Amino acid sequence: MDLALYHPAHGYYARAAQRSGRAGDFFTSVDVGPLFGELLELQLAEMGALLRSAAERLDLVEAGAGNGRLAADILRAAKRRDPDFYETIRLHLVEASESARAAQRDTLAEVGDRLASSRGELPERFAGILIANELLDALPTHQVVMRADGLKEVYVSPGPDGLQLVEGPLSTPELQAYLDRAGVTLETGWRVEINLRAVDWVREAARRLTRGFMILIDYGHEARELYSATHAAGTLTSFAAHRGGGDAHATAPSWLDRPGEQDITAHVDFTSVRAAAEAGGMTTIALLDQTYFLLGLVEARNQPSNQQSAISSRQLKTLVIPGGLGSTMKVLILGKGVGTPALAGCSFKVRVT
């Protein structure tokens, strides 16, 4: 998965500046239109007001920033609606793909004056707000399966007809320790993903954030649901031309096809992600569906013009509709050194479906 997605020459994300949208392989909230970024800016501005003093700058870090479309939507809304907040922002875009980083200046255009850095790693130290929209699901994951004689890891191996799956001993005892910490007991035959990389990333992000907020938006579940009979076949899948695929029980599932030419993804374990952040000194403020997060921000938004309202209402329906992005995407909000403030994004209802 690491090679297929992130190899510098042949990786799926490395070879193009943008992979989502109608012409891409999958659809994100950013692809719906600028409303997602405009609503998110309301939450960021509120957080910024809680963080900054008159002399302070605010670091806005987006991890997995791609070509900068979400940051551009946020900054344009801030420049128009919250100019004082806009002037405090020092934008840091974190993106592994050189192709995507090369496109960021053009994407930001007139709001490019806020860009302080563009690199492949998080800043070593920063104070402000970290956003990661659909990053954790694309981090390389382990897959394990419970057999009668114990837990086995699933490996990729060359075979006579191409890549195939084989089972073997665990590559690290941390895989069993992960399940133990989450209180998970797998039944024989259950196949699941364990994303050690996501937990490590969150722990490291929490270390580097000296004070501020973290907003993680992704699809996934609490551990008790993710590691249950409902998902006993695993969640690892691929996307190409907006079609998902992957039979976890096949000898060669679809995510082994055409490595480097399709997305590979797995659902996020929010229980373990939250625990890693809290071990790094952060406090959980809320975990809720994107539907309720955005509806809370809609209530805080100033009334737009009629034309803007018509456009926004179409976009809003797509962003919050049950069964779509609204209930599939979860929003985890964490704080460090900020207490547990009552945020606009949590004002409508705190609910996870």
Overview of this protein structure:
- The chain is of the alpha/beta class.
- It has a single domain (2-139, 194-246, 261-346), classed as Rossmann fold (3-Layer(aba) Sandwich), CATH 3.40.50.12710.
- Helices cover 34% and strands 26% of the residues.
- It has 13 helices and 15 strands.
- The protein has helices at 2-6, 29-32, 35-51, 69-81, 83-88, 98-108, 174-181, 196-208, 223-226, 270-279, 290-300, 306-320, 325-328; strands at 58-63, 89-94, 115-119, 126-133, 142-147, 150-159, 162-168, 191-194, 209-221, 237-240, 243-245, 263-265, 268-269, 283-289, 329-336.
- β6 and β7 (162-168) form a beta hairpin.
- The longest helix has 17 residues, at 35-51.
- Residues 246-250 have low confidence and may be disordered.
Write the layout of secondary structure elements.
Blueprint lengths: L1 H5 L22 H4 L2 H17 L6 E6 L5 H13 L1 H6 E6 L3 H11 L6 E5 L6 E8 L8 E6 L2 E10 L2 E7 L5 H8 L9 E4 L1 H13 E13 L1 H4 L10 E4 L2 E3 L17 E3 L2 E2 H10 L3 E7 H11 L5 H15 L4 H4 E8 L17
Q: Average pLDDT across residues?
A: 90
CATH architecture, by name, is 3-Layer(aba) Sandwich
Oligomeric category: single chain
User: Unreliable segments (pLDDT under 50, ≥5 consecutive)?
Assistant: 246-250
**Discrete helix count:** 13
The main sheet comes to:
8 strands, mixed
Our Rg estimate from Cα atoms comes to 20 Å
Q: Which fold name is given in CATH as the topology?
A: Rossmann fold
Termini, distance in Å? 29 Å
Tally of discrete structural domains: 1
What fraction strand? 25-35%
What is the number of beta strands? 15
Shape designation: globular
Tell me, what is the CATH class? Alpha Beta
